[in-house]
Specification:
Helix content is about 10%, strand content about 40%. It is mainly beta.
Length: about 170
């Protein structure tokens, strides 16, 4: 076997293989990391559901990062968008399908949400009173609240619009 070695890669020149793209997924449930087992199935299109192209899974306990698959790069690029179906069987069961372009190697994040597109458990609407001053003078401004949970990335949780409040009160 003849090989060419460099600092970053080695190539076996005796048996050329087509280039591949290394793909992995982070599977979330309703925008959060959960520890249950999850699956992601990759199909060419909704018309070809009988031909499964790849399966990714996140083991119970970790539940976030899937196995790594090496997929044929020419096939990935020629296909364009792929139909992916994410499944989390933990109660209540969540399933989501979407079209994704998988042309580049890397880690893709896929959020498995309910079919109605909800973002998980809904709580009571937040109410906030704000007093805004610009150069120490009271001012009318829109107030945007930013929630920073420790375990999740930042999320805008609400937008209080003076216009909406005026429309409700008629002032």
């Amino acid at each position: 076997m003849a090989t060419i070695a460099h600092d970053y890669y080695s190539v076996d020149v005796s048996s050329p293989r087509p280039p591949t793209s290394q793909i992995q997924f982070r599977l979330w449930r309703d925008g959060q990391v959960t520890t249950g087992q999850k699956f992601l199935r990759v199909y060419r299109s909704v018309l070809e559901l009988s031909k499964l192209e790849a399966v990714f899974w996140a083991e119970p306990g970790s539940g976030e990062y899937t196995n790594i698959e090496r997929l044929d790069l020419a096939l990935l690029l020629a296909q364009g968008d792929w139909l992916v179906l994410g499944v989390d069987d933990s109660a209540p069961r969540r399933v989501r399908g979407a079209n994704l372009a998988l042309g580049e190697p890397g880690v893709y994040t896929f959020n498995i949400t309910s079919v109605d597109g909800g973002g998980g458990e809904q709580g009571d609407p937040a109410l906030a009173h704000a007093r805004v001053r610009v150069e120490r003078v009271p001012s009318s401004r829109e107030v945007v609240l930013l929630e920073r949970p420790v375990e999740v990335s930042d999320a805008i949780t609400g937008l209080i619009r003076r216009v909406a409040a005026e429309a409700r009160t008629g002032s």
